[in-house]
Amino acid sequence: MPSLVQSVDWTALAPAAIPAVLAVAVLVADLFLPKERKELLAWVTVGGLALAALSLIPLRAGRHATFCLTDEKMRPLHDGQATATAGCSYAADHFTLVVQALVLGGALLTALLSVNTQDDLPAGEYWFLLLSSAAGAALLPASRDLATLIVALEVTTLPAFALVGLRRGDRLSSEAALKFFLSSVAATAVSLLGISFVYAATGTLHLAAVADGLAHAPAQLATLAKVGAALTLVGFAFKLAAAPFHFWVPDTYAGAPLPVAAYLSVVGKAAGFSGLILVSVIAFRPYDDVWGPTFGVLAALTMTVGNVGALRQRPGVERGAVRLLAWSSIGQAGYLLVPLAAASDADSPAHEIGTTVAYALMYAVVNLGAFAVAALVSRTAPLGRLSDYRGLYASRPAAALALGFFLLCLAGLPPGIIGLFAKVAVFSSAVGAQHGWLAVIMAVNVVIALVYYLRWTALLFARPEGAPEGSASLAELPADGGATAVSRTPVGLVAAIALTAAAGIVLSGAPQLILRYAQGSLL
């Protein structure tokens, strides 16, 4: 009789385990550090996230799995050829590594954004919550059963509630946290109900075995299985802010601290999409004729709602810059759904998955860069209005050029070649899958997006005007005041802007690199 005891592959677990262990260490250290030394926690967090990212290097072969069923408990697939990870709950394959690189890199840039910029927040709690959420986001793409998947998703989002509402006494922050909490709880409840139905119909939670069970489900359980799959996907649509489940995003981003909003827009979205890919492409593959067209409709609706919402933002609205980025992130989520809709018609969805991941990588770099510049501007213009960016080039030419480059990347215009390359790849996936109607809607939305991206870019180079009451315009700062503001800019914030700008420039020079890298994300 074989032993039921199995070894744990700690090398495979390292990208998720390092942030988790470090989160506890930071929380304990916060109890003993004096206030003047709290900055040390920030740099420990940055170093820990960098170490977690480096721990991906030994896994690059993509052949690690752990927490597997023993041979006698593995449910054989009907074709008799169970894959090496079919009975495992954690798999560090190529898809996992690419998404983990994205989320850990995004968390690292968020930590850099936060160094010496969030002094009004409790340091220990802030870094503990950020690391805890990053651990969940790193665990999620490696999850290969529905239970681990939902736990990882909640570990990602539960600390995010507290991060959004961590600014005590701020009404907008509390309101944002409440909206985020209520929408996420509803999504979790719907997902858990769906997962319970799927388990009742298939008798398993492992993704590959679920697909086999759905394909051979008894006739009397077929309806239950379909309802369960639908409810599970609806729950993920809430998490991803796909329209019409997007209502919480603008207020949440506007009320959250800027680094937290940046984190939610990139890491939270990447984690949610990786979960959606896993459940749809692996577990619910037998229902691809249903979820494929559904994703297409959601993609069209989401990109349209997001871009129209961003187009309506006015220069004088308080926190209008973050709201525009929030609506823009909804529109970008619509683009990310397009290759997934196309994947339903593909014999092997590897190309479509790679396209989605490539677009997510591009979006992560330039969107974090845009938030970094917004964090820089907010230091002298705390109301965060779009009008505060008028004439930014006159006082901060480097910041203005960086933000203009990021916005052009998001719009898909030169010199932001990486944005154009990613949009063409997404567009090609829709055309190649005979989703011409979706390609047309995407083209219209790209044109709509050009309006608000170019309108914001033009503000950066416009002639400075008198600052509105209650806000100091960056453009009208005197020369010595501007120099003082620049000299006091936290080094982490400068590093975040420099890293994202450098990555955007390199990828715009060789955009094929990111697609080739993402094409390794085979499931």
Automatic annotation (TrEMBL):
Source superkingdom: Bacteria
GO molecular function: NADH dehydrogenase (quinone) (non-electrogenic) activity; NADH dehydrogenase (ubiquinone) activity; quinone binding
Top-level class of the enzyme under EC nomenclature: translocase
Reaction equations catalysed: a quinone + NADH + 5 H(+)(in) = a quinol + NAD(+) + 4 H(+)(out)
Primary localization class, coarse: membrane
Record keywords, A-Z: Cell membrane, Membrane, NAD, Quinone, Translocase, Transmembrane, Transmembrane helix, Transport
EC number, UniProt record: 7.1.1.-
Cellular component aspect of the GO annotation: endomembrane system; plasma membrane
Subcellular location: Cell membrane; Endomembrane system; Membrane
Membrane topology label: Multi-pass membrane protein
Residues annotated as domain NADH:quinone oxidoreductase/Mrp antiporter transmembrane: 143-448
Pfam families linked to this entry: Proton_antipo_M
Segments traversing the membrane: 12-33, 40-59, 95-114, 126-143, 149-166, 178-201, 221-248, 260-284, 290-312, 324-344, 356-377, 398-422, 434-454, 491-514
Subunit text: NDH-1 is composed of 14 different subunits. Subunits NuoA, H, J, K, L, M, N constitute the membrane sector of the complex.
Family named by the database record: Belongs to the complex I subunit 2 family.
Protein task: NDH-1 shuttles electrons from NADH, via FMN and iron-sulfur (Fe-S) centers, to quinones in the respiratory chain. The immediate electron acceptor for the enzyme in this species is believed to be a menaquinone. Couples the redox reaction to proton translocation (for every two electrons transferred, four hydrogen ions are translocated across the cytoplasmic membrane), and thus conserves the redox energy in a proton gradient.
Protein name: NADH-quinone oxidoreductase subunit N
Source organism: Actinacidiphila alni
Upper taxonomic lineage: Bacteria, Bacillati, Actinomycetota, Actinomycetes, Kitasatosporales
